[in-house]
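The following block was generated as part of the benchmark described in Methods. Ligand: inosinic acid.
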Amino acid sequence: MKQAPEILKVLWDEAAIQVRVRELGAQITRDYERNLSETLTRNPPIAVGLLRGAVIFLSDLIRAMPIPVECDFMQIASYGKDSKPGTLQLVRDLQNSVCERHLLIVEDIVDTGQTLGHLAQKLTARGAASIRFCALIDKTARRRTPVELDYVGFRLQEDAFLVGYGLDYAEKYRNLPYIAALKPEAVI
Ligand code: IMP
């Protein structure tokens, strides 16, 4: 695919992403097998993908997890300026109850931490048996709400805007097979 002129640099190419996602899948599988061994078939974990950015990551991740796993999706929108805490709105809720279920929240990128902090409270209140957080990218420069991530694909300390492999800017670039930083002047 021809690289768009707004792309500053590729941070992780397709091969690096695939290797890391397979490692994460293996690590998550080991942990669930160890902790849930005899209940895995009776009460499989639910991989909860946050729409829309995590769809591609979740599809690859669950195929790297050779254990019973269900999928569900939530969508949370944030309204507000970048510099101010946005107001979060639940746009799409889970289809099934999470009471007594083991949840693996799958997020594309954690930025301020607001979304995952909000979700942790909400899903705990609904009686989830356990909640683990898996983020493809942990972008720490603007963190406001501390979140404990159980599984992280890649860490980024700079405050760059990333696109590709599900991540978008104004709904563009989700289909790039790599993850890249956009040129700052392309982000308005
Ligand atoms: P948080 O609540 O500030 O952690 O926001 C997380 C959400 O913001 C992610 O699920 C993305 O939808 C979006 N986001 C934050 N940083 C980026 C980025 O660099 N590229 C694309 N989306 C981003």
